[in-house]
Design a protein that fits this description.
Helix 1 crosses helix 8, helix 7 packs parallel to helix 9 and helix 7 crosses helix 11. The longest helix is centred in the first third of the chain and has 21 residues. Strands 3-2-1-4-5-6-11 form a seven-stranded parallel sheet, with helices on both faces. A three-stranded mixed sheet has the order 12-9-14. The protein has a domain of 212 residues: Rossmann fold. It contains eleven helices and 14 strands. With 336 residues, it is of the alpha/beta class.
Length: 336
């Protein structure tokens, strides 16, 4: 198949492209505006293609908001499936600038789905988020847990899910998989690609930056949550395991299976303080940490129930170890 990966120069998208190159024979194209992705990541992916004796990845520097330009790509490229990553993802920013999130995450995704239907593309894999669950009452969320996002980021993603579901109902030849990510961290086990955005808000990346001295200190946003140590608890998943879930989803759709939604996480969580302690241990650096007020839009606990993706897609984790996640994030940060 010919697979289009939007946001393929970014953090998660690049790891999926890497695995597509290494583990499949699919032809791959990328659309990315390089707002958070990097040309150096594309260069690395091209090098991996050469190593694996694959054709180069086609790369289009374009923004999904430029509807006519994106449609011109669709007119000439003849895609079979789309894996859609391109989005804005910073929760506090979504509270401060909600329209940016509705325009980029919902409007642009809706247009992309429209193009898929117009140009008879069969399959769509959507990068969604556990933020659609908001502040659930149960300790682990399933795919049937009520969706009640508490910030514009989560709402923008949930709206896109609904558009995708309605489009699939209306068009029997169009199928999708929605993957609801939990907290993604870590880097390529061979240290070739990783999270490169300098202003990232991801906890583990910030801890790695502080451990190597790129930051003088880091903050814990809120230590008065109703959790054992007062800090937020999250389900952290290594980016390599998350990427493998996309390949499983693609196989699932290729087999003719019905549209579906899956949580992608490990099914257990760690607090902010536990993550920081692990990073200090693997780095052997006792870096400085301060406590600040809570951020808007942060739920206290968010952990996945991942039984459905294991059963239906046959997905399994190979990097489920917080120390490994921290080690790979730290190793990548040192290369930057």
């Amino acid at each position: 198949m010919h697979i289009l990966v939007t946001g393929g120069a970014g953090y998660i998208g690049s790891h999926v492209v890497k695995q597509l190159i290494e583990k499949t024979q699919h032809r791959i194209s990328i659309i990315d505006n390089l707002s958070t992705g990097h040309q150096s990541t594309i260069d690395t992916l091209q090098s991996i293609s050469i190593t694996n004796k694959r054709d180069p990845v086609a790369f289009y520097i374009e923004d999904l908001k430029n509807f006519s330009a994106v449609e011109n790509i669709f007119k000439t490229a003849s895609f079979d499936a789309v894996i859609h990553f391109a989005a804005s993802i910073v929760v506090p920013e979504s509270v401060e600038n909600p329209l940016k999130y509705y325009m980029n995450n919902t409007v642009n995704t809706t247009h992309l789905i429209h193009l898929c239907n117009q140009y008879r593309i069969k399959h769509f894999i959507f990068s969604s988020t556990a933020a659609v669950y908001g502040e659930p009452s149960e300790p682990q969320v399933t795919e049937t847990t009520r969706t009640l996002p508490i910030n514009p980021y989560g709402r923008s993603k949930l709206m896109s899910e609904q558009v995708l579901q309605d489009a699939s109902k209306e068009n029997s030849t169009f199928s999708h998989v929605i993957l609801r990510y939990f907290n993604v961290a870590g880097a390529d086990l061979s240290n070739r690609i990783g999270q490169s955005f300098p202003n990232a808000t991801h906890l583990i990346k910030i801890a790695a930056q502080t451990a190597i001295g790129s930051r003088e200190s880091m903050m814990i946003f809120g230590d008065d949550y109703p959790t054992p140590d007062g800090t937020c608890i999250r389900d952290y998943i290594h980016v390599e395991d998350l990427a493998s879930a996309h390949l499983k989803a693609l196989d699932y759709l290729e087999e003719g299976s019905a549209s579906n939604t899956f949580n992608v996480g490990y099914g257990h969580g760690f607090s902010v303080k536990e993550v920081i302690a692990t990073m200090k241990e693997v780095s052997q650096v006792d870096f400085e940490v301060f406590t600040a007020a809570r951020r808007a839009g942060d739920p206290a606990v968010l952990i996945s129930n991942n039984s459905k993706i294991k059963k239906v897609l046959g997905w399994s984790a190979s990097c489920d170890e917080l120390a490994l996640i921290c080690q790979t994030a730290l190793a990548w940060e040192k290369t930057l």
